[in-house]
């Protein structure tokens, strides 16, 4: 499912860890925002990993799971486009 993950992490070291984790799952579309196409299992895995990185008292991570209809209603002003998975991968 299409998922938008945004974060506000106070400490640089934790912020870098979160960014590196999310780079493995999606596309960075803004400084602290990623767009990902995630299975239910991947979403659960990311949640577990994020909980081990962040400080729940000072940091914030928000995950928005969007169905296909909601993705079609995304509006982007200025540069950029909604991230899509390619139809194929070149290995």
UniProtKB/TrEMBL annotation:
Keywords: Antiviral defense, Endonuclease, Hydrolase, Magnesium, Metal-binding, Nuclease
InterPro entries, sorted: CRISPR_associated_Cas2, Virulence_VapD/CRISPR_Cas2
Residues that bind Mg(2+): 8
This protein's record includes keyword Ion transport: no
GO molecular function: endonuclease activity
EC number: 3.1.-.-
Main EC class the enzyme belongs to: hydrolase
Known cofactor(s): Mg(2+)
Keyword Hydrolase: yes
HAMAP family, A to Z: Cas2
Subunit: Homodimer, forms a heterotetramer with a Cas1 homodimer.
Family, per entry: Belongs to the CRISPR-associated endoribonuclease Cas2 protein family.
Entry function: CRISPR (clustered regularly interspaced short palindromic repeat), is an adaptive immune system that provides protection against mobile genetic elements (viruses, transposable elements and conjugative plasmids). CRISPR clusters contain sequences complementary to antecedent mobile elements and target invading nucleic acids. CRISPR clusters are transcribed and processed into CRISPR RNA (crRNA). Functions as a ssRNA-specific endoribonuclease. Involved in the integration of spacer DNA into the CRISPR cassette.
Protein name: CRISPR-associated endoribonuclease Cas2
The species this protein was found in: Candidatus Chloroploca mongolica
């Amino acid at each position: 499912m299409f998922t938008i993950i945004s974060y506000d992490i106070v400490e640089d070291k934790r912020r870098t860890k979160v960014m590196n984790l999310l780079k493995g799952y999606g596309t960075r579309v803004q400084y602290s925002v990623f767009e990902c196409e995630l299975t239910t299992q991947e979403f659960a895995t990311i949640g577990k990993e994020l909980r081990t990185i962040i400080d729940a008292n000072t940091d914030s991570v928000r995950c928005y799971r969007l169905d296909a209809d909601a993705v079609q209603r995304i509006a982007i002003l200025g540069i950029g486009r909604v991230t899509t998975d390619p139809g194929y991968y070149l290995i």
